[in-house]
Amino acid sequence: MNQRQISRINELAKKSREIGLTPEEKEEQHELRKQYILAYRRSLTAALDNIVIEKDGKEIPLSKKESIKS
């Protein structure tokens, strides 16, 4: 997700509030939001994968839980 795509998401959100979107713009907005959420989840997962808990002086990485699919 690059800055241009994020700017486009914001433009479509503003236009949606002000005058509404065409069906094509709604589809574009939906696809851009899906991409944004996917990028956010990947970033969050990467950050959580780097968290280490120290227990009794030992570094133990966080264990993975069952994945939640939406």
Automatic annotation (TrEMBL):
<protein>
    <recommendedName>
        <fullName>UPF0291 protein C12CBH8_11040</fullName>
    </recommendedName>
</protein>
<dbReference type="GO" id="GO:0005737">
    <property type="term" value="C:cytoplasm"/>
</dbReference>
<keyword id="KW-0963">Cytoplasm</keyword>
<comment type="similarity">
    <text>Belongs to the UPF0291 family.</text>
</comment>
<dbReference type="Pfam" id="PF05979">
    <property type="entry name" value="DUF896"/>
</dbReference>
<dbReference type="InterPro" id="IPR009242">
    <property type="entry name" value="DUF896"/>
</dbReference>
